[in-house]
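Bench log. Compound arrived from synthesis this morning; before running ITC I wanted a structural hypothesis for how iron/sulfur cluster sits in the protein. Inputs:
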Amino acid sequence: MNDSFPTVQITLDGDVVDHHRPYQPFKKIPIRLFGTNKTTDVDQSRKPYGRRTVKTGNCLDPVRGCSGGRTNHGLGCWWGCYAKEMSLRFHRLFDIPVSMILNETLLSKDLRRLSTDWVRIGVNGDPCFDWELTSKVVDLVARHDKIPVVVTRFWEFPDGDVLALLAEAKAHLHVSLCAFDPPVFREKRLRVMYRYHELGGTARLRLVSFAFKPDDPLWAVQNELAQHVGVIEQPARVMRSNPVWSRLDSDRYAPHSSYVTGTADHRRLTAGSLYPLLLQCVTGCADCHHQCGTRVPVDLE
Ligand code: SF4
């Protein structure tokens, strides 16, 4: 334990946190495959719910942590970052992204055992903070005949060379955007996505959707985002303590079904799908026949 780190006093929506344990950056560890309660529907003892640790899965993190965690009053992204919330429970300084260690032998061992044909890259942090490392990981995943699916907010953009490498490896880029994002933020990311498409890559806009109050002008922004081709809708799961809550139509929100217990989660509320014609990301990935849309050809025109 490093006593030089300050003890951070944070309470998340009524959660009791241990104020005496110091918060520390993520430790650098080898990049391995893992699962989460969302992506893996049973744990290693075959129990569907109530599990503590899901050991197997098709997820990996080249980078843990994300400086986007500083946004939205420290909640991280407009919807409230689930990864940041979890990291705080483990006393990690989420806002400091830390690159992990690529040991090709170890990761190849995991990839050879994996039965699914795709790998999610980016769960407990945003891979965009180390594109050099992320592109090496993408290349390794592709060499094992798996589709690399990179989930990012593009806080840092890949340069042209990296973009070409990702396209060569047939990586799918999933870029999360929402109507709360400022116009410049959205436009810059869409430009890179279209550029990636020109290079022959697959880019998907993960539209994090909100049910705004009826006359809110953000409806028009969100509807316009939904017009892009190849959009996946991801209905936001929002806590009442989130500052964006005041813009939302609370009558349309109901508890989300917890990925851990299978029962109603009264802390995070969802309005469900608002654009039924879009691909939706409302289930655990293990149940989702769209597989995050990676099997559907995209045509961003
Ligand atoms: S970009 Fe992703 S990891 Fe970073 S704060 Fe936003 S939701 Fe969290």
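What the model suggests: Residues 66, 68-69, 76-77, 81, 83-84, 125-126, 153 surround iron/sulfur cluster (CB under 6 Å). The first strand starts at residue 59 and ends at 60.
ITC booked for Thursday regardless.
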